[in-house]
Amino acid sequence: MKFNITKEQLREIVEFTHQELPCEACGILSGEISGENLIVKRIWKFKNELNSSSRFYVSKEKVDIVISNINKLNDHLIAIFHSHPTALAIPSYQDIKYHLDPKVLMVIVSFAKNKTDIKCYQITENEYLECEILTVNQDS
Ligand SMILES: [Zn+2]
Questions:
Q1: Whole-structure pTM over 0.85, yes or no?
Q2: Can you give the pLDDT of all 140 residues of the chain as single tens digits?
C-alpha cells in the first residue's frame, strides 16, 4: 500500500495536532483508492473528549457523522491519525489492540523530545509495518 498525501495536508495535520497539545488529538483521512495507492483528499478532525495527553476518546455519534459524510462524498476511509504528545511515533500496545480495520492505515504524529515526527503504519493483528509516506504535489 502506498500512502499519498500533499505537503499542505501534512502541514495541516501537524498544525492541528500541535494546537491541541498537551492533549492527544485524533482524526480521519479520507480519499481515493487506486490500485496500491491511497490518496488523501480530506482531513476530518476530532476533539479529544477526555482532555488527556495519553488517551483519546471521541463519542460514537461524532465518528458516525464523519463516516456518513465520507460515504456521501463517495470517499474511502484511508487512515486514522492521532498524536503522541510525548511518546515516539511508534504504535503502542493499545493502538494495535484497538485498531479497527487492517485496511485502514494508522498515522502517528509525535512531538517527543521537542521534535515533530510523522509516520504511517499498516496494522495487522499483532504487529505493525511501516508504510512509506509519499508526499505529492497538490496538482498531481
Ligand atoms: Zn498512539
A1: yes
A2: 899 999 999 999 999 999 999 999 999 999 999 999 999 999 999 988 988 888 888 899 999 999 999 999 999 999 999 999 999 999 999 999 989 899 999 999 999 999 999 999 999 888 999 999 999 877 64
Cα dihedral value 61, 65, 70, 76, nearest 10? 0
Task: Give the rounded distance of the alpha carbon of 97 from its chain centre.
Answer: 16
For residue 98, the CA-to-ligand 1 centroid distance in Å is 10
- Other residues' Cβ atoms within 10 Å of the Cβ of residue 111: 19
Q: How many folded domains does the chain comprise? A: 1
Range of the domain at 72: 2-136
Who surrounds ion ligand 1 at CB < 5 A? 92, 95
Give me 81's grid cell: 491519525
Does the N-terminal peptide bond of residue 102 adopt cis geometry, omega within 30 degrees of 0?
no
CA–centroid distance, residue 29 to ligand 1 (Å):
16
CATH, residue 33? 3.40.140.10
Cα of 137 from ligand 1 centre, angstroms? 28
